[in-house]
Amino acid sequence: xxxxxxxxxxxxxVEATVTGETTLMELAVAHDVEGVLADCGGACVCATxxxxxxxxxxxxxxxxxxxxxxxxxxxxxxxxxxxxxxxxDLNAELDGLVxxxxxxxxx
Length: 107
Hints:
- By secondary structure, this protein is an alpha+beta fold.
- The chain has 3 helices and 5 strands.
- The chain has helices spanning about 25-30, 60, 65-70, and strands spanning about 1-5, 15-20, 50-55, 80-85, 100.
- Strands 2-1-5-3-4 form a 5-stranded mixed β-sheet.
- The longest helix is centred in the first third of the chain and has 7 residues, at about 25-30.
- The N and C termini lie far apart (about 35 Å).
- It comes from Pseudohalioglobus sediminis.
- GO terms for molecular function: 2 iron, 2 sulfur cluster binding; electron transfer activity; metal ion binding.
């Protein structure tokens, strides 16, 4: 079982638990996390699932791939912890991950 805490731009916290295979985006959508629009359904072509991940998980997650990095470049509020939730496959190593959803802003 993997438990993820989402913090929406408003400050509201949403705790979600998953036992099967899914992506961070799918989990956020299933729990109505505000700010995760997921317009492309996980195809990594829209950046509407932008999130910022707890820095302590950087080694576990690694960095964004080239297409993901290109999509992140289209956003205004990107940080070193920015990722697209559709590109994060959840597993037991990510149990306890805190995910911040920044305000939605595009170039």
